[in-house]
Design goal:
Blueprint lengths: L3 H5 L2 E5 L3 H13 L3 E5 L2 H10 L4 E5 L7 H11 L4 E6 L4 H9 L4 E4 L4 H31 L10 H13 L6 E4 L6 H10 L8 E5 L5 H9 E2 L11 E2 L1 H4 L4 E5 L6 H13 L1 E2 L8 E2 L3 E6 L3 H6 L5 H7 L2 E4 L10 H10 L9 E2 L1 H9 L5 H15 L4 E2 L6 H18 L4 H15 L4 H8 L3 H14 L1
Parallel strand pairs: 1-2, 1-3, 3-4, 4-5, 6-13, 6-14, 7-10, 10-13, 15-16
Antiparallel strand pairs: 8-9, 11-12
Helix pairs in contact: 3-4, 14-16, 19-20
Length: 457
């Protein structure tokens, strides 16, 4: 319920060619603390609305000159979020339906109780507030997922930008590929919020995070009685995404049994919930992302070829951070400036920057953001130092120095391999299994190389 302070700042226009009704409504609204203005004609009210949009409009339906329906139509064209209550002594079903179709919040017939009108005003203002808040949030979301938020000046990222720009008004399927942490989710959301579907929902689902049995019911929904615990109908994510975009993250983790059903739903644009006897039409743009090589998965029989081509109408590959080092300074600066962490840190020391630029970033942009967030929290002064970085990055600094020394000493690849294997055996206490796993080789190969090293001594 609006407070007295809020009501003073709430502007309500009353339009009625009956002088007594205007006076009565003005007195009622004034007693409740609202700021109210009265107009005898719809034309005068419309001028006031166009000059300075009010919060709510109360208008009679039948008046001299401009009728209430005409005023309602013009007022909503000027301000779609305006709450409108139509009142009349000549109520008909047809006029009520027309008023509601044009956007009236409610239709009230005379005579009416003051309490009923005041309740409608409160509800109308609440609806206007919600509409305004939704519009504000939508603008913020669209701004957050603007192209400017995707950072990169490298040639590889410029190609990605160009492809996104060409696809933003399209409805075709897009497959986003790249390593974990490269920003596939961000690009999917950017595509959605710059497409014709931006007013529809963006529904993401991580296919790797849900067990197979649960994933099917999440995607397609179910009807009551479909299985033991199905006590009520449940809408699936395809239905939730109707009119918008369904984003299938980690799509390469889908089981083969579910891939066949997904293909059918995409091709027929119709979903059938578990236990249902008939399908339901849906209008959904499907985007997918994976860090797996789906072409290889298709060749190995782990992913359906027909589904692969249905999802991969256009592929956008996001390169890993190590392949676009020229983007690192921009990304570091962006993370520093847009961090949610309060910090007095304003710059990086030269040594810190050197480490960040030389680090291979296996976790890509996600890892970079986390490292900067951590450093800002731990930093005690205005400059982020090496001590504010994670310990493993300091180990990387030592590794880079050792590699540089090895290169200058003209070590061959065979020499480096031998030293690396023997170092692994030393650090793991002689665990051949652990060393083989870390090096990514089988134990037979490791045994053979260790035997060769022993014979060479």
């Amino acid at each position: 319920m609006p407070t007295t302070e809020h009501r003073v700042h709430t502007r309500i226009l009353v339009v009625d060619d009956d002088r007594d009704m205007r006076a009565s409504l003005i007195d009622l609204l004034g007693d409740e603390g609202y700021t109210a203005e009265a107009y005898q004609t719809g034309a005068d009210a419309l001028t006031a609305i166009e000059k300075s949009s009010p919060d709510l409009l109360i208008t009679d339906l039948v008046m001299n000159g401009m009728q209430g329906i005409e005023l309602l139509r013009a007022a909503k064209q000027h301000d779609p979020s305006l709450a409108v209550v139509v009142i009349t002594a000549f109520g008909t079903i047809e006029s009520a339906v027309e008023a509601m179709r044009l956007g009236a919040f409610y239709y009230l017939t005379k005579p009416f109780k003051s309490a009923d009108l005041l309740l409608l005003i409160e509800r109308g203002l609440e609806e206007k507030h919600l509409r305004t808040e939704i519009q504000r949030l939508r603008r913020e979301v669209e701004a957050h997922y603007h192209f400017d938020r995707i950072i990169g000046k490298s040639a590889a990222m410029q190609q990605v930008f160009a492809l996104i720009d060409r696809l933003k008004e399209s409805h075709i399927g897009v497959l986003l590929t790249g390593e974990s942490g490269t920003g596939k989710d961000l690009i999917a959301r950017t595509l959605h919020y710059h497409s014709a579907r931006k007013h529809g929902p963006f529904v993401p689902v991580n296919c790797a995070a849900l067990p197979d049995s649960l994933l099917e019911s999440e995607l397609f929904g179910y009807v009551r009685g479909a299985f033991t615990d199905a006590h009520r109908d449940k809408k699936g994510l395809f239905v939730e995404a109707h009119g918008g975009t369904l984003f299938l993250d980690e799509v390469g983790e889908l089981p083969l049994s579910l891939q066949a059903k997904l293909l059918r739903e995409i091709e027929e644009k119709e979903i059938r919930p578990l236990g249902a006897t008939r399908g339901e039409k849906v209008d959904v743009r499907v985007m997918a992302a994976t860090n797996r090589d789906l072409r290889r998965a298709v060749m190995e029989g782990k992913f359906r070829e027909d589904l692969y081509y249905r999802l991969n109408v256009v592929e956008i590959h996001i390169p890993p951070l190590r392949e676009r080092p020229e983007d690192l300074p921009l990304l570091i600066q962006y993370c520093m400036e847009h961090s949610a962490q309060p910090s007095q840190a304003r710059r990086l020391s030269a040594a810190t920057l050197r480490i960040l630029l030389n680090y291979p970033w296996p976790g890509n942009v996600r890892e970079l953001k986390n490292v900067i967030e951590r450093a800002l929290v731990l930093c005690l002064g205005e400059e982020i130092t090496e001590a504010d970085l994670p310990p493993h990055m300091m180990m990387n600094k030592v590794a880079i120095t050792s590699l540089q020394a090895a290169f200058l000493s003209r070590y061959s690849l065979a020499d480096l391999e031998r030293e690396y294997i023997l170092l692994g055996m030393e650090l793991t206490g002689g665990s051949k299994k652990e060393v083989a796993e870390i090096l990514g080789i089988d134990r037979k190969t490791l045994y053979r190389k260790l035997d060769e090293y022993a014979k060479a001594e």
